[in-house]
Specification:
With about 250 residues, this protein is α+β, with helices and mostly antiparallel strands. It has helices spanning about 1-10, 25-30, 35-45, 65-95, 135-140, 145-160, 165-180, 220-240; strands at about 20, 50, 60, 95-105, 105-115, 130, 180-185, 190-200, 205-215. Helix 4 packs antiparallel against helix 8 and helix 5 (about 135-140) packs across helix 7 (about 165-180).
Length: about 250
């Protein structure tokens, strides 16, 4: 743990006003032995988190920090873009609407707008649920690339030996053909969920948007209406994020 603390202390020295540092500057600021500083910078460099300028031997943040920062920025952007559209969707349907992203082998709710009705679906922001259960997670799985899907299915099966991987894989293919997923009582008895994907500027999967509520309100006619409104909202969010080839 001490090594991690030292590592984060070194990284915290970088700022908008100080984009590069030398080993001597880090050593003088933190008091760590130069050998310790060099070892940590060398490790970060090997994994593309730090870049060393061979001319002046100064270190700056590497590409992987840019990549991680871009992920965070995308998440912040899509939540801000999605929220007014989610509110409109709740006004149209009177059901709870939520956004979910992949977090390891789980999906986590990052935004929600509650139904105005007394009987409604209940979800907490930050709440994690199994990725393979429910419409929200299944949509996220379905729209990963083929290699990612295979890897995730293997990892999910290692966590749950009773999981029918081949059956789940077929469901994911169907979801991708349809462009949405509907589940009834799969994760929470007496509830339904309808989910669709949200894409970013380069067509990358960002999140799933879900309408959820009590199963007694899901008639055949209403299910069709909810799917249409959900996909319309998912397309609108995606287009606002720069994705104009929603499929």
């Amino acid at each position: 743990m001490k090594s991690f603390e030292k590592l984060f202390n070194i990284l915290s020295l970088f700022s908008m006003d100080r984009t590069s540092l030398s080993i001597s500057e880090i050593q003088a600021e933190l008091g760590y032995p130069k050998s310790t500083v060099f070892r940590m910078l060398d490790t970060l460099e090997r994994f593309d988190y730090i870049e060393r300028n061979p001319d002046n031997h100064r270190y700056s943040l590497g590409f992987n920090f840019f990549r991680l920062g871009s992920i965070v920025q995308n998440q912040l952007d899509f939540r801000k873009v999605a929220l007014p559209i989610m509110k409109t969707l709740v006004e149209q349907t009177s059901e709870t609407v939520e956004l979910n992203i992949i977090d390891g082998l789980s999906r986590v709710c990052v935004e929600k707008v509650d139904s105005p009705l007394d009987v409604r679906n209940f979800v907490r922001i930050g709440e994690q649920k199994p990725l393979h259960l429910g419409a929200s997670g299944k949509v996220l799985l379905a729209y990963l690339n083929e290699d990612q899907v295979k890897r995730m299915l293997c990892l999910l099966q290692s966590e749950n030996n009773s999981l029918q991987v081949s059956e789940l894989a077929e469901k994911l293919k169907t979801i991708k053909v349809n462009g949405y997923c509907v589940t009834r009582g799969e994760r929470v008895p007496g509830s339904f969920a309808v989910a669709a994907p949200i894409f970013g500027q380069n067509g990358e999967l960002l999140a799933s948007i879900t309408i959820a509520g009590p199963i007694q309100r899901l008639t055949v006619k209403r299910e069709k209406e909810l799917i249409e409104k959900l996909i319309e909202s998912a397309k609108s969010i995606s287009s606002h994020l720069g994705c104009f080839t929603y499929n």
